Amino acid sequence: MSTSQITAITELDRSHYKTKVYAGGHFIYADEPESLGGTDEGMNPGALLLASLGSCTAITIRMYADRKEYPLESIRISLAICEEKEISAETVISREIEFTGELSQEQRERLMQIADKCPIHKILSNPIKIQTI
């Protein structure tokens, strides 16, 4: 990840609930499913959170594997979190990581350790304070 501060801007007008998200010169939509009054034109915020963790984990693993010249072909990460009504201080995100490639057992174990070094994993594993101004 970049060493500079990460920023994002979100905008929501009277649309239900299609939200514009801008970050680093990129643009996506966040939304809610039609069953909740949205247009289902983007991932819901919980899915975006999981996508952040999954993509950061994959990138961190890939960087390490490339640096160590591991024969890692691909990474697949499946993530899940409880329903919003069940979220608490003990909320658990499940993360299953699969590798393809001619990796030794030692390399696979090391890559699993590296997965926890991802910056988003570190953020989510520590107390977070949100300051609203």
Task: Please tell me about this protein's structure.
About 30% of the residues lie in helices and about 25% in strands. The chain is of the alpha+beta class and about 130 residues long. The chain folds into two domains: about 1-40; about 45-125, GMP Synthetase, Chain A, domain 3, CATH 3.30.300.20. The strands form two sheets. Strands 1-2-3 form a three-stranded antiparallel β-sheet, with no helix packed on it. A hairpin with a 2-residue loop joins strand 2 and strand 3. The longest helix has 24 residues, at about 45-70. The two termini are about 25 Å apart. The relative contact order is 0.13.
By CATH reckoning, the class of the largest domain would read Alpha Beta
SSE succession: EEEHEEHH
Any low-confidence stretches, pLDDT <50, length ≥5?
none
Domains, number: 2
Quaternary structure: single chain
Overall structural class, as computed from helix and strand content, comes to alpha+beta
Report strand order across the widest sheet. 1-2-3
Under CATH, the topology of the largest domain can be stated as GMP Synthetase, Chain A, domain 3
By DSSP, the count of extended strands is: 5
Computed over alpha carbons, the radius of gyration is: 17 Å
Residue fraction in strands: 15-25%
Give the averaged pLDDT, no decimals: 93
Task: State the shape.
Answer: elongated
Architecture per CATH nomenclature, i.e. the level-2 architecture of the largest domain: 2-Layer Sandwich
Give the number of helices: 3
Sheet with the most strands, sense and barrel status: 3 strands, antiparallel
Q: Give the N-to-C terminal Cα separation.
A: 26 Å
The H-level CATH homologous superfamily of the largest domain, spelled out, is: K homology (KH) domain
Determine the fraction of residues in helical runs and give it as a percent range. 25-40%
